[in-house]
Amino acid sequence: MSRSNDETGASTMRERASASRWKLWVLLEADRRVLAAITLVGVFLALVWLSELAPTELRGTMTSKDPVETLFQALVTAIITGVTLVVTLAQLVLSQELGAVGDQEDRMDGAMSFRRSVESVIEADVSPPDPASFLQSLVEAAGQQAATLSTLATERRDDRLREYAEELTADADAVSEDIEDAQFGTFEVLSAALDFNYAGKIYEARRLGAAQQDGGDSDVREILDDLVEILTHFGPAREHIKTLYFQWELINLSRAIAYAAVPALVVSIGMIIYGDNPAVVQGAFLGIDTLVWLVSAATTIAVLPFVLLLVYILRIVTVAKRTLAIGPLVLRDTVRSGESGQDGE
36: number of CA atoms within 13 Å, CB side? Predict the structure, then answer.
């Protein structure tokens, strides 16, 4: 394993994460709608299974108490609170878009200034307009510089420099391929960007460059400086696209909860008004009282807004945790080098 990996983390997000493949799939990779559906099925089956473990039957309990009415009264309150939360989330997203014309002009000037800065480091007349291609152009520029560095390192027989350059070239090629057909609004764009461990690469490039200061190779130093500049631009570019993705997801979340709240509210109110007479529902299905199936299904529909909130927020907070720092500051557990003045621990 290269020193870069030892001290600044592995190249890909999956290698840097200590979580299992299934946990990463749940937290990040799974389609949120699929995950919500799986969760709802799990809730439904768990409720039916619990009815078989309960010491008393639901039908008998309903004749002496009102557990169903109490449950759905609480769910009605929770649904209304959830819709209020949706309105708050929507206002939070909209607040980023509202402002005086001067504020909008400053935002535009900042965006154009950053694009011109990126165009200068990737040596392009015009940078790509869509987020995926924009990130890809920076990754490919880093890969090209790394390939040049690898050639120089081979000529100089510098194994440490060559390993760094080859690793960076391979990582850049892999991320560029992953992001090739990704569309903004899907997690694929951000997932590929998270795989590119730019913070560790900046740290290692700076350290290799520092080793070239006294009597080193000026050509190598120049390429390393160019690499640091490209990777430094990748950081804020990824953070900006991450912010846009968060806003996109919060809008999707708000709309999904608003849609789900209506059937959940109707079912909950219906169970309060009409569900107090267990004699209305008779018979059994698969050996289980039909009343259990009905109450379990109604409860599952009622918790739909909460499940949607859970699965969307899980991904957002996981990404936020993995991207808390910007630049060569590594927050994961890594091997400490013990060198004075190092960046990134």
Answer: 21
